[in-house]
Amino acid sequence: MNLLKPRAGRPDGGSPGSSRADSAKGNDAFVRMQAVSLDYSNERETVKALGDATLSIRRGEFVAVVGPSGCGKSTLMKLVTGLLPATTGEVHVRGEKVTKPIKGVGMAFQNATLMPWRTTRDNILLPFEVVHPHKRRFRRNRAEYAEKADKLLASVGLAGFGDKFPWQLSGGMQQRSNLCRAIIHEPELLMLDEPFGALDAFTREELWGIMQKLWMERRFTAILVTHDLREAVYLADTVYVMCRRPGRIVVTKRIEIPRPRTLETTFEPHFVDIVHELRAQISQEHAP
Predict the structure, then answer these.
(1) 156 CB-near residues (< 8 Å, 6+ apart)
(2) Measured CA angle at 266 (ends 264, 271), to 5 deg
(3) Which residue of 23, 93, 198, 250 has the fewest C-beta atoms within 10 A of its own C-beta?
(4) Three-state secondary structure string covering the chain
(5) pTM for the whole thing?
(6) Cβ distance 80 to 248 under 8 Å?
(7) pLDDT at 288
(8) Contact 126, 117 (CB under 8 A)
């Protein structure tokens, strides 16, 4: 079988890189990637998925990563969470070098992946069954946790739906439940991999508002991977643009738009100008 596997990183972590790496050395960085690359290899070939990626994310910051398919956006997320080892460079979270899967992470993906045999409430409670220290006390204090799940459901407009099964919910309702499951255990870091990509435009825009509301209430650090530039500008404090393989960050754009943002905000000239600017920079980067 001709499977590509990630090459292990050098013991020294590789060269720290150029001044771009220096800009990511701030002591206030909650997530820091420094000149990180990742190679997949097998007996026939080596593919560089990510090359010299450097970024710095403050605690409580919401960032978005955009770029074409195959540029390494999802790979970047796996490196941050320790699911893949870097070939060169270093990844730090909470000031510690990432060498294995890290704790305190919530994840939401394009597909809600709710278990069809469990109620919505029981799906949301799943992290408490597997995450310490909740795992030890969940059975004895189930009512307490169930109340927390119901309050969270109510906050995203799903009051009274805790006893429904996923197949009884619309796609948008399933994704709201998915977000609740990702944050109910109060993770410090939330990873969002195209969570709204499979939804229709109206539902997707509605969930932007819900995602913003959850972040403003809880202030977790969030990394959103998306192809939608409007979504990125609506939700993020900073947008990182990646180029085609080998993926690297070519544009860093701070979004200086006050919160809370609304759908009306997306039609304002300043917002539209930022979207056009990002699109132009992406087009320029990928011009033949």
Answers:
(1) 176, 179, 180, 210, 213, 214
(2) 130
(3) 23
(4) CCCCEECCCCCCCCCCCCHHHHCCCCCCEEEEEEEEEEEEECCCCEEEEEEEEEEEEECCCEEEEECCCCCCHHHHHHHHCCCCCCCEEEEEECCEECCCCCCCEEEEECCCCCCCCCCHHHHHHHHHHHCCCHHHHCCCCHHHHHHHHHHHHHHCCCCCCCCCCHHHCCHHHHHHHHHHHHHCCCCCEEEEECCCCCCCHHHHHHHHHHHHHHHHHHCCEEEEECCCHHHHHHHCCEEEEECCCCECEEEEEECCCCCCCCCHHHHCHHHHHHHHHHHHHHHHHCCC
(5) 0.85
(6) no
(7) 59
(8) no
**Structural tokens at position 124:** 């949301």
How far apart CA 262 and CA 268 sit, in angstroms, is 10
User: Which parts of the chain sit beneath pLDDT 50?
Assistant: 1-26
From 75, 90, 73, 85, select the one nearest 29 (Cα to Cα): 90
- Counting every residue, how long is the chain? 288
Q: Which of 20, 127, 32, 128 is nearest to 86 (CA)?
A: 32
Residue type, 248: R
From the list 78, 109, 95, 88, the residue with the least C-alpha distance to 38 is: 88
